[in-house]
Amino acid sequence: MLRSEDMEHVTLYFSKDTAKQAITELGNHEMVHFIDQNSSLKTERLPFTREIRYLEKLLSRVSYLNNETVKLTPLAKTAARCRSLDLGEVEAQINKHYIRYAQLRDLQNDTFSNLSRLQEDMAILQTVEPLIDANNKEHFVAGIINKEKSFLLEKILWHSLRRNLVIHTFDFESEELPKKVIFLVFTHFKAKSKTTQICTSLSARIINLNEKRYASQNFLNMASLIGQIKAVYQNNVMTLKSESLCISQQIPLWKYFLKKEIKIYEIMNQLTLSQQRDHLVGEGWILKRNVERLAKIMTFISEIHGYTAYEIKGVITSLQGNKSPSPLTNPKLEKNLGLENKEIENYSRFEENPRFEESGDKESGDKESGDKESGDKESGNKESGIKESGNKEKIKNKENQQKNRNQQNKENQQKNRNQKNNENKENQKNNEKPKFSSLPTHNIDIITDPNTPLSTEPTQPPTFIETNEFTHAFQTITNVYGIPSYKEINPAIFNIFTFPVMFGIMFGDVGHGLILLFISLFFIRYKSKLDNFHEATQILVDGRYLVLCAALSSIFFGFLYSDFLSLSIPLFPSQYTVDYIYPFGIDPAWHHSTTGLMFVNSLKMKMSLIFGFCHMLLGMGICYCNFYYRKSFLDIFGVWLPQFLCFVGFVGYLVFLIIYKWLVTYDYPSLISVLVGMFTSPFHVESSMYPGQVYVQGFIFIILCVTFPWMFFAKPLILTHRKSKDLVDVWMHQAISTIEFGIGLISNTSSYLRLWAVSLAHSQLTQVLHTMTLGANNFIVRIFTFPIWLLATAILLIGLEGLSSCLHALRLNWIEFNSKFYEGHGYDFKPLNFMENDEE
């Protein structure tokens, strides 16, 4: 975990017919991290863009069915069952179920709409029939409206008809339908149309009472029709549930298969054609320990699917299988896409890539011959025209054109001869070099040519750092800031110690640490049950071991501070007298002293500075290891050494004064005044703390004055002497780095004082909360304030204070520590695999 694992660059060669099957096998073994060689091309120019879009369309249909159908537990062993499927079969199943489900859903909606309409009509007639005269229905307007709009309807009708109406409303409630209101309006005949318009504008449904189907004699027929439609609706519901159950069982399989196919086509879009345009070439990275495993897998692929080859470090291994290749694409998919000879068309799009040179002159020769034939044809047509017209001027022009054409033909023939000669020479040279198309056809053949490698390696390999359940959370914290560069020292291994320690310094309390300990143990114990339970709890589940380490550190520093929920912990008898030393931590008697807060603050502040110095010194040591590993001795001499001398001379001297003042005596001047005096009057000391202080401080002052010009001029001047390129960028970068280091020398050191500040805030807030609740003298008051204390402890002290301590610890690790050595310009090693589809 200290450094990323070794990588090997691999170049893979596939036949056009078997590329998809070979990539599928490589994805099943999760081994190769493919490099996108067509990243500069637009998506529309990639050969398999249409296939990917069509598969995404099918996937959107599956997602729609997944949202609409019943959610069931995904089927086990999806990957194993998926290998026996075919794209045409999956496509037919998806379209069949999609169309059937859409039809059933539309039929159910139509049936429900008709049923609800008849039920409303039945309720309206049963309600208003006793209130109206059978021979005078022209003055009545009956209908139904949503309940939230009924009051607005009454108000508008009263206002617009000037109260010349009578309106009755009745509530209509049904289990399957939303709440509505039946209304009956009586007004004069001229205002009836106006009333109808107002009701319709408010989305009310009006029924015509004069229609025969709404007569009272047809109630029985309407009730019978409602019963029949109910039966049809129930049948539709059962059929839709059955179809949903059938679809939901297949959805995990379909989603896995379609995402797998999309990944395969995306990888195929990253391949390029060989220079001979007869094979596909893919480049990628594999773990060095998997080289032998890759050889076995490629041998297996060649036996199953045909000819393949791979190249590692200029060594090409050719593998020839016995079986004939299987087709690349599915004919049904071609038919739906409206393509013919899609495979040839796709790979012809590879040939349009301007990054490849034209390999043969046959096409140009054919083109020239075609031009010649067309020219002859045109000349023939012109001759016939001349004979018909008998124009002498045209004949002369034709003779001149013929002469020019003959001269051009001679020149073209001479060019073709020269090109053929050049081709023969190039072929003779190329026959001496290893060509993919000329590889032998026996089982295994290794060809080496270190002078002419067939592929060029990218500048930086991907980063792969293997983690386990314990280290995964710490590595995730590091990756959020930046993924380590290839073979760069990984700061996550140091964060396992530094992050909990800084958290404990700020959150040091035995009681609160025990609460965090129980929480972390709970998540560790029930991890399998709490996985994917909720997004908020998932963070704690993933960081359960980080919380465990933070809890143990809080308990340790709680004993060191002698603090248990703002109460002192008398582990040993008090030694609150001069010349006696308490065995461990702070003497609990300080909690009851009038100067206790001043003493504890001074102690925590100086502890923070000492820890910050050790933390940043560790970062500078890691920086030296990185430079030495890369054999970058110029950076060691021109960058690291002056920074180290400057850092130790300033911050290290401050830490020395703190420890010396602790060990020797307390009756010495303030450390701040000593540091200020070292710069204002470096060769004069008013009150000396130790013998020879003026010489030591003068020597440190000289070092500080020398190191900054050293940092700025050393590396650029040496590179100028070596006549390196981009010297302007080097000077600018070095100037910015020097200024940044000078400012950070003070700001980074003072930033560690946040450890003392947050610890002080935590302890004082705990003490105030205890004093106002459980610290009361009245026992009844304690009983009533206990829930308040418990709630405030959980939310304020454990939740907010714990989150604050976590964020401050992250900042110190990311900025102050990582800035001393960490680049973080790497990218993850992501081999092609299909197991992520199951996890999704």
Automatic annotation (TrEMBL):
It is a multi-pass membrane protein. One of its GO terms (molecular function) is ATPase binding. One of its GO terms (cellular component) is vacuolar proton-transporting V-type ATPase, V0 domain. It holds the Pfam family V_ATPase_I. It is found in: Membrane. Residues 403-419 have a biased composition (Low complexity). InterPro entries: ATPase_P-typ_TM_dom_sf, V-ATPase_116kDa_su, V-type_ATPase_116kDa_su_euka. Its main location: membrane. Keywords: Hydrogen ion transport, Ion transport, Membrane, Transmembrane, Transmembrane helix, Transport. The keyword Ion transport applies. Essential component of the vacuolar proton pump (V-ATPase), a multimeric enzyme that catalyzes the translocation of protons across the membranes. Required for assembly and activity of the V-ATPase. PANTHER family: V-TYPE PROTON ATPASE SUBUNIT A (PTHR11629:SF63), VACUOLAR PROTON ATPASES (PTHR11629). Belongs to the V-ATPase 116 kDa subunit family. This is V-type proton ATPase subunit a. It comes from Hamiltosporidium magnivora. The lineage of its organism: Eukaryota, Fungi, Fungi incertae sedis, Microsporidia, Dubosqiidae.
